[in-house]
Amino acid sequence: MTRRPVPRAGLAALGALVLLLVSASPASADAPRPTDYRSTVTDVSPALPSGATVRVIGGDSLLELSLPKGHTAVIADYPTSGEAEPVPYLRFDADGTVRRNTLAVATTANQARYGASSTVPDPGAAPRWETVATNGTYAWHDHRIHWMSPKAPRVVAADGRVDLGGDDGTWSVPLEVDGKDTVVTGELVLLPSPSAAAWAVLVAAATAVALALGVRFGLRGASLLGVGAAAGAVGAATATWRAVPPDAGASVIPVLVAAVALVAALAGALGPARVRLVAVAATAASLLGWGVLRWSVLARAVLPTTLDPWLDRAATAVAIGVGLGLAGLLVKGPSPRRRADPDPTVTVTPTA
User: Fold this and answer.
1) Measured in Å, how far apart are the chain's first and last C-alpha atoms?
2) Which of 8, 115, 185, 230 has the fewest CB atoms nearer than 10 Å to its CB?
3) Each residue's pLDDT tens digit, 46-58
């Protein structure tokens, strides 16, 4: 009897893809990510012109200003000691063009969440402008709207509000809109982290179902479950990608990883037997890699997504669980074929 080969190619593909996906990094050092902080705008004084908006994106990551054509705005640089007046950081022109001063402290400091800058602004120097948008809308990281430490604040109000220095702990960002001094005021709230226990149960359940389908129907049957998990991953990843402005660090990597999982799962379910092993390995690796990249959505209160948070978490938990189940099937290897039982109705007569 010839033994079936150990699925070394599939296991090698699984390991290589997991390492590749885990090592993948977001497109920006300050891309919005799951967090327990929510920063919101509470007041704009005086009111913005009709059609203009200002909002926080990504929990507490980005402040976005949108102005219709015909209006202008200037956002000043962070104030520094010895400066008579902050130099301009951003400029919104009436034709919708948005420019950033490369000589401003904020241009360097805003590249990272807890970033600093060695730039020494010269109030007498002419700004060096670079175009960052042409539609009158731009989102930038602003250190004034979030807590500037990776450690949680020790003192938080009963309602979760974090003291950022303003009245009642509020934050403020000064603007100049159509030549008028304008102040955007907001608050930062620290929310309780959701329990990840329920989502761990869903991960375990998805793993068990994938294993059961694989044992009962083989890799093709398990791949059908992979198709569903990968489709959910594509939807969740796309919702996160679309929730973040492209110029604010939106990463397409999770979308591509989920798409790879979907294509591989379809190949495993519908393709010929000779490609099924590698297809299942690619599905498992892609789902696991995608889940590792997004693991924090299961334990953070605020998610950068256009979906309801529970849908995002459910898609992530199912993807991780199915990925683990498919990986388990690969490690277990194919079950040996059962030998046919002799037909009891056949009588064997010995020959002379």
Assistant:
1) 30
2) 8
3) 999 999 999 999 8
